[in-house]
Specification:
The chain has two domains: about 60 residues, Arc Repressor Mutant, subunit A (Orthogonal Bundle), CATH 1.10.10.10; about 140 residues, Up-down Bundle (Four Helix Bundle (Hemerythrin (Met), subunit A)). It is built from eleven helices and two strands; from the N terminus they run αααββαααααααα. A hairpin with a 3-residue loop joins strand 1 and strand 2.
């Protein structure tokens, strides 16, 4: 089943395009990537989007930033194409992995979150509230941004990489669910209480509560 990229965030599209070009040999191992301004112009995105895409590629082991020198290609492929596996997997499998990752991540986040993590989650949750009056694509993106912040607060790079690998698939499926099955009326915010409860539990450092709320939310 192919997944449309129409509703993906610009950063996700930038990651896909830069990864494709690295894999195709446009920038071989050891080569320096063009600067942010050049890449932003080529990809039709902002410089902040390029920076986010480069961070994702760095976590996947494809590039490395050298302070004062730039960003260099260190590999032209990842050992296992997790993203391709995700695209081949059924929705039920994706949801099972999501539950495993996010429930454990919620518990770890409660133990390891920093003040910066709490602030990032609060901003993401406030953005989710604000996006309730926006079209479904904007709301789904805001919803996922909160969950990304929760996983990041676990401070486990492998968990973050795994979660990042199925975000494009998850976005597409959540958009279809929100628009077609849930038929969310504009201005409503599904599961608002559970999201606030998850934030409160993590911010309070309550692992048991964070795990319980995440399990209730994800089923």
């Amino acid at each position: 089943m192919s997944v449309s990229t129409e509703h993906l965030r610009p950063a996700d599209r930038a990651v896909t395009e830069l990864g494709r070009r690295i894999g195709a040999g446009e920038w071989p191992v050891g080569a320096k990537l063009p600067g942010e301004t050049s890449l932003a112009h080529e990809l039709g995105v902002g410089r902040s989007t390029v920076r986010e895409a480069v961070r994702v590629l760095a976590t996947r082991g494809l590039v490395r930033s050298r302070q004062g020198a730039g960003v260099f290609v260190v590999a032209d492929s990842v050992p296992i194409d997790v993203s391709a596996s995700v695209q081949r997997a059924g929705l039920a499998q994706v949801q099972e992995v999501r539950r495993i990752v996010e429930i454990d991540a919620a518990g770890l986040a409660a133990e390891r979150r920093t003040d910066d993590d709490v602030e990032r989650m609060r901003r993401a949750l406030d953005a989710r509230h604000a996006a309730a009056s926006e079209p479904d694509a904007a709301f789904v993106n805001a919803d996922i941004d909160f969950h990304v912040a929760v996983v990041a607060a676990a401070h486990n790079s492998l968990l973050s990489d795994l979660f990042e690998s199925f975000l494009p698939r998850l976005r597409a499926e959540l958009l279809a669910y929100t628009s077609e099955i849930l038929a969310r009326p504009r201005g409503t915010e599904p599961d608002v209480d559970l999201h606030e409860a998850l934030f409160d539990a993590i911010a309070a450092g309550d692992r048991a509560a964070a795990v319980a709320v995440a399990r209730e939310h994800l089923g």
